[in-house]
Amino acid sequence: PLFIPLAQSDMKDYKHLDIRNTVGNVPMEWYQDYPHIGYNLDGKKIFKPIRNKDELDEFLDKMENPDYWRTVHDKTTASDIRLTDEQVDLVHRLQKGQFGDVNFNEYEPSVDFFTNEVMIHPVTNRPQDKRSFIPSLIEKEKVSKLVHAIKMGWIKPRKPKETTPQYYDLWAKEDPNAILGRHKMHVPAPKMRLPGHEESYNPPPEYLLTEEERLVWEQQDAEDRKLPFLPQKHSCLRAVPAFSRFIHERFERCLDLYLCPRQRKMRVNVNPEDLIPKLPKPKDLQPFPTTMSLVYRGHTSLVRSISASPTGQWLVSGSDDFTVRFWEVNTGRCMKTLEVGGAVKSVAWNPNPAVCLVAVCFERTVLLLNPSLGDRLVVSSTDQLITAYEPPEEDKEQAVTWALSEGLEHNMGHRLTLTHPKAVKQVVWHGKGDYLSSVMPDNSSNLQVLIHQVSKRRTQNPFRKNKGLVQCVSFHPLRPYFFVATQRYVRVYNLIKQELTKKLMTNCKWISSMAIHPGGDNLICGSYDCRLAWFDLDLSTKPYKMLRHHKKALRGVAYHRNYPLFASGADDGSVIVCHGMVYNDLLQNPLIVPVKVLKGHQITHDLGVLDVTFHPTQPWVFSSGADTTIRLFT
Amino acid sequence: MGGLQKKKYERGSATNYITRNKARKKLQLSLADFRRLCILKGIYPHEPKHKKKVNKGSTAPRTFYLLKDIRFLLHEPIVRKFREYKVFVRKLRKAYGKAEWTAVERLRDNKPGYKLDHIIKERYPTFIDALRDIDDALSMCFLFSTFARTGKCHVQTITLCRRLTVEWMNYVVTSRSLRKVFISIKGIYYQAEVLGQLITWLVPYQFAHDHPTDVDYRVMATFTEMYTTLFGFINFRLYQTLNLVYPPKLDSKAESELKAEHEEDYAMDSESYLEKLSALSASLARVVATAEEEEENQLDQFPADGEDLENMEAREKEQKEQEAQNRLFEGLKFFLNREVPRESLAFILRCFGAEVSWDKSLCIGGTYNVTDETITHQIVDRPDIDKQYINRYYIQPQWVFDSVNAKMRLPVEDYFLGVTLPPHLSPFVEEKDGDYVPPEKLKLMALQRGEKHVQEEEEDDDDDDDDEEYNDEVDDEDLTEEKNLKKMEDQRSQGKTLAVKVTPGKVKPWETGSVGNKVRLEKEEKAEEKRLAIMMMKKKEKYLYDKIMFGKKRTTREANKLAAKRKAHEDTSKAEKKQKKAKKQ
Fold this sequence. Notes:
The structure holds two protein chains of two kinds.
Chain A: H1 7-16, E1 36-39, E2 45-47, H2 55-64, E3 71-74, E4 79-82, H3 85-95, H4 137-152, H5 211-219, H6 246-259, H7 272-275, E5 292-296, E6 303-308, E7 314-319, E8 323-328, E9 334-339, E10 344-349, E11 358-362, E12 365-369, H8 376-387, E13 401-404, H9 408-412, E14 414-419, E15 426-429, E16 435-439, E17 449-453, E18 458-460, E19 472-475, E20 481-485, E21 489-494, E22 499-505, E23 511-516, E24 522-527, E25 532-536, E26 545-547, E27 554-559, E28 565-570, E29 574-581, E30 591-599, E31 609-614, E32 621-625, E33 630-633
Antiparallel strand pairs in A: 1-2, 3-4, 5-33, 6-7, 7-8, 8-9, 10-11, 11-12, 12-14, 13-14, 15-16, 16-17, 17-18, 19-20, 20-21, 21-22, 23-24, 24-25, 25-26, 27-28, 28-29, 29-30, 31-32, 32-33
Chain B: H1 13-16, E1 17-19, H2 20-27, H3 31-41, H4 51-54, E2 64-66, H5 67-74, H6 77-97, H7 101-109, H8 117-123, H9 127-132, H10 135-145, H11 155-175, E3 178-183, E4 187-194, E5 197-204, H12 217-241, H13 252-262, H14 269-278, H15 307-326, E6 333-336, H16 342-351, E7 355-358, E8 377-379, E9 393-395, H17 398-406, H18 439-449, H19 467-495, H20 514-535, H21 539-584
Parallel strand pairs in B: 6-7, 6-8, 8-9
Antiparallel strand pairs in B: 1-2, 3-4, 4-5
């Protein structure tokens, strides 16, 4: 390590003592454990004083020694030094911030060397340069350059800055054809909305908000408010205050102008009357039922199904009160009431006028009744037809059991009982009156539809596969086709070829009912989602027309046999009769015009009209409802 | 399977649009500069038709600019100026930091500036385009001209705005193109027809502004920068069309008149000149000295036939009306009291040919005193005035506004001092059939048609002797009004169809005859026919139809509500009147 000798402090020691510690500038603690405390000039050890003072000695010294205050401990020699008077004086002066030297005068008078008085003699005796007497060539060159530039017009005097903008005729040479690229897609900003009466400082009283309206206005969010300000009334112009949101509104307009995305919107400006299709007047499409003329009362529960006899003289109805009633159409009299062992789901009168048979289904049974109404000959011939059956030689296993009714039941009119394996929902006759189909909706088996032949008492299951829950079935009126409606599709099968010919997409959620036009080429489907789909079988498998005229689920649809009419009954309690003209000309599409909304049925338990059917010859329509009545509209 | 696989979002609308951030990056501008550029160049975001497609499948809310717009911005010379300015600011800051004051001064001297002339020309290729878009510029300049010079924006901008608006007002006065005025709670709306364009602007009331903190004044300042440039050029051109000197100068005659009176009041001529101009009391100097009155610009007569002739006649009639309106206050001498808004009233009155003056202490430019005997109308907005002259009307300022909107001098009785003023209606509302028309408007329309309206309600409160009669009259009025209301409602309900309900109504006395029944039956039949036809509507059309009908119903509902409110109000006020009368007796 480098030892720097402490010259200053040692100088004093040197005067009084001859020992000079040459240990250097090191902490003296290093010598704590040694007997010596450094070395003198000769390299001899300087030993510490024999006995160190302890606290008590120190104290005694302090008390007794009058020079204690001027004694200083020297660490390098570990000895005490008594300061002389001069030294004490020096310390005092330094403490006061005075110079150490007694003789130094800090306030000596200053001598002004450079004064404001011009002296006659130079400070230095150096003579001036020659160049200070002759003009500068470099400057001359610079000036001449500038002069030349000004002469040549290269340098112009600095123009004063114009503070106000200069305006001129900007559109002096305007070219209206100057279409810029961006102007093709340019959407000019709409102008500000012009103020209405409510913005006036003195509006008519009706434009002022009432107390409640004002409260509502205040509670609304700024975006929801219809008016962005509160209309106010001031008695005179003097009383009108400043509008507090003026700058805001201006600012918002600015934001709209540069931030708001613009889009060109085509506003449809149509007369709503033009949207309504021009249809022939219902008056010109008569006849159709217009008024309710008869109400058939007697049932005690909702009437599920009705059917008219082919002559049009009788009407049969099946109800949830376990009865089937026969009515005379013209008088509204109940001719017969038959108790059956369950809620009647469906009734169907045999369409063959030579046969007097009614199919009734309830629970797992389909009952063929002979109501013994009308022509005696027909009644007896029907009975003969039933009894003339001869069982075949070999007995085939059948899906249903055919049983002939006898005795009391026979007197009541029961003729044949077909017991099904499952609950039956619907029965339909073929147009000839010999075949009969029954529907047993079941999602999990292929045994849903059965076709029975009455004359041979034979039953067959036409389908091997389950294609979905069957809703209803129907026979084609002329050709050997069979229509099966599942939830969303109507499948048309050819019974002779035993194949699927068509699959109609109804676009409905759940088909409820179906009817075939007597011509056989058109079909209507009612659905629980308030739609009625008209299919033209020649046209497409998609609906030709979709009507949404009912407010609630459709329950029944029907075509008239002779007149171009069809009707639909729905849960909203109304029957809508439409004119549905089918033309022989294949190029002309059917004309569909709603002609009458028939109301009368009360809505009970959210059910309105359950079934509709037309009179076979007259333009009359029957409807059965959940309010236990059957109504005839003529 | 040949060919390259087509990638999604690489063609079509996805490539036509660009998001804001991408646009900013493409232009290499800061957001503030980008905003400024968009404002100046009039670039705005577009709403794409198929947002999801443009947004590359994402539904995040983004604003889109047309890519072509952004490309168009790339070539803008002003972008370079922006960059220069950025550099300038940097240099200046550095010089300040180093305390190099000469450098600061030098930099200040060479501060880069830019002009917007080419942008204006580009945005508005024709003068009419520019005029069509001046509404916002006017409103903005009028707002800025009312700002105090306290540092919300540059003082130069404020003075420039003030100068331009004064020029504009002088132009409107000289060309007599003011059409409609409206005192709203926000300010005063003016509508002028300049070169066939309807221009509407809003002027705030003369109060100190309470500057909101949530408004970005830089955006407004940028807009104002653009607007002042546009506005100046338009003013220049408009002055040129009228053969006026631009910048406007007072007529030498008027100038000398004004000088004689007020020379000693104002320190500097340059300062007082704008004020003299803004006083609007003197006409302007023309480039070519013409006769005082311009010759009537007659429509040229063309031999025409049939429809053209009709059109022509209609146009001629319109023009005549217009001229009549322009001379609405001609020959009248107005004096404005201290408390009325001087500038707006002087502006309006001068626009329609009146002479206006005001107190000397109010503003420079008043040409005559209150004591002038020829004054016809004095506009006062205080409940009463001490010294009244006999040969003049003391009216409230609303009379001027209402008369302008009615295009005729309305009877002054309704506007006398201390009288409850009739409601002030907006002239901008054009009622279609089915809308609610306030009864005041109906009255006014009758007055305009020239029908002498019998003013039953205008009777004084003190004539009690014909109280009985009065009551009868009131009842009659009630009846007629109710009938009117009913008729109006009927008219309205004919328009709507869905709500038609056929109910077995009561047999009314005037319907007992078979004729009435037949009519009703026919009506019912028609209604049913319509209902049935509506059933056959296609889904799309039905939706549209329902929407239209819903809107119609809503308007009728609102109109009915207003009518009912009015009726209730009138009933209560009548009851109060009666009570008062009863008390008096």
